[in-house]
Task: structure prediction
Amino acid sequence: MNTLNTTIEGTLGRLAPPTRAVVLILFSTLCFTSMHTVIRYATTEGQIHPFEVAFFRNFFGLLAVLPFALHGRAAALRTKRLKLHAIRGCMQVFAMLMFFYALSITPLAKISAISFTAPLFATLGAILFLGERVRARRIIALVLGFAGAMIIVRPGVIALDLGAMLVMTSSAIWACAILIIKSLSRTESSLTITTYQNIFLIPFTLVAAWFFWTWPSWELIAMFAVMGIFGSLAHVAMAESLKLAETTAILPYDFVRLIWATGIGFVVFGEIPEIWTWIGGTVIFGSTTYIAFREAQLRRERKKKSG
Result:
């Protein structure tokens, strides 16, 4: 077990695994929202291009996990699936750049609500590309989920929202990355997956940032360091929570992201989300939660038949 996992175990070791998983997922949602807050502040108040912020997020994210990755003769860097890590990095850079740009022009709560579509796209991808069987209830849940996204965007009712479109496109690409992560997690630790994510994204985001580069102030660099730590901690905490408990037990707590985003968005930026953001976000989240519960139920049924 790597040092970072040992640290988590030592901190939360007295808690039962399901409770520990809940604490970790709630911590993850707070870290993600805090990271998004820094991105929005840097791109609006700090006047730094989102692509440059993306580079610093990965740079400091790698620095945050590198001491743990190098521990034990760099055990976390040993992998036989480097090609798959690289493919994931190539895909995720587009998702990250779109998402970061969207954060510079779209309220935090709206971003969080629309980002709930990622599991929907992952489910759709599993059906289309992995040949998973699809049933009527799953199709209905998918349709309702995407209807929730339309409630937020409301095409034809309000002007086309570039930020919302970028988040949805980013979520679709991120969904493909989720499928790769699921494959990697069978043989790789959460620390290995997070470390290689940063390693491959650093050069990709640096190339994108080069064309818009302006040197940030020391205050912003300090904020970027905190942002990188938040990002890496969020990914590791989420991965560990999913190892401790089933997705169906964890997924409902992810909705807290919308609550964090609403509160922080109001306090820091004076953003008040529209009622449509809450309605659409709830519909999307409800559909993704149902799909997760249904998939878990089917897995249990298959195990009983095979057992």
Summary: The chain has a mean pLDDT of 83. The chain is about 80% helix and 0% strand.
